[in-house]
Amino acid sequence: MNHDAYEDAYIRGILTGVKTIAMVGASPVNVRPSYFAFKYLAERGYDMIPINPGQVGKSLVGKPFVGSLKEIGRPVDMVDIFRNSDHAGKVVDEILELPTLPKVIWMQLGVRNDAAAAKAEAAGIKVVMNRCPKIEYGRLTSEIQWMGVNSRTLSSKRAPTPTSSMRLSLNRASVSGGATTAADRVAKDKNDVS
User: Fold this and answer.
1) What does the alpha-carbon distance between residue 100 and residue 80 come to, in Å, rounded to a whole number?
2) Is the pLDDT assigned to residue 142 strictly greater than 70?
3) Residue 18 has what pLDDT?
4) By the 8 A CB rule, do 102 and 125 touch?
5) Residue 179: per-residue pLDDT
6) What gap in Å lies between CA 78 and CA 125, rounded to an integer?
7) Which of 143, 129, 121 has its CA nearest to residue 84?
8) Rounded-to-integer distance, Cα 117 and Cα 51, Å
C-alpha cells in the first residue's frame, strides 16, 4: 500500500464498510480536534467508542469512556488513533493482541508510523495514516463544500443545501448541527422558488 497517496475508492470503501469505531485519545474538551472528529462521526451514524484512561467515568456525546481497547468487550471495525506517531506503535501492538482484530487502523493527521503500519498490514488489517476520517468523509460526501473547507474541485454546480436526514454519497444521513438562521433561510428560499 502506498501510504503517501490513497485512492478515493480505498478511503470510500473503509468509510462505507465500518460501523463501529474506537477512538484512542478521544477528549471531552470541546476545543480539541478529537472531540470534533468524534462528534462528527457519531452524528453520521457510526457507533463511536471513546478510549482515554484519564476520562473513565465520564462520557463524550453520550458515549461512556473506556480505559483501553481490551476493555471494550466487543469487536470494533476500526481503531482511530489520536496519539502521536511514536505512541501509535504501542497502540498497534495493543490492537494486535485483541481477540478479534479490527478491519482498519486509521492514524490521524500528523500521525505516521510505517513500522506499525507494516505490522498491521501483515496481520491483514487495512491502514490509513496522516488523514482524518472527518475530513475524508466530508470530502467524499461533498459536505466539505458547506463545512467551509476548500475541496480543490472547481464546479459551476452548486452543492445541495444539506438538510437533516439528507442522504449523502457515503450512504449515511446528515444530522442537525450545521443549522443556522442563514442556512435555514437559504433552504426556505430555495424551497419557495421551486
Assistant:
1) 16
2) yes
3) 97
4) yes
5) 44
6) 9
7) 129
8) 20
Output DSSP code: residue 44.
T
Question: Of how many residues is the chain composed?
Answer: 194
Which residues does 33 contact at the CB level (< 8 Å), separation at least 6? 82, 108, 109, 132
| Residues 110 and 86: beta-carbon distance below 8 Å | no
Q: What is the pLDDT of residue 141?
A: 86
- Residue in the structure block whose three cell numbers are 483501553: 68
pLDDT level of residue 115 (50, 70, 90 thresholds): very high
User: Quick one: which H or E segment has residue 14?
Assistant: helix 8-17
In the chain, the N- to C-terminal Cα span, in Å, equals 47
Confidence (pLDDT) at 65? 97
User: How does DSSP assign 133-154, residue by residue?
Assistant: HHHHHHHHHTTHHHHT---S--
Q: Where are the beta strands (DSSP E) in the chain?
A: 20-24, 47-51, 59-60, 63-64, 78-81, 104-107, 126-128
User: What mean pLDDT is predicted for residues 150-179?
Assistant: 54
The strand order across the sheet containing 78-81 reads 47-51, 20-24, 78-81, 104-107, 126-128
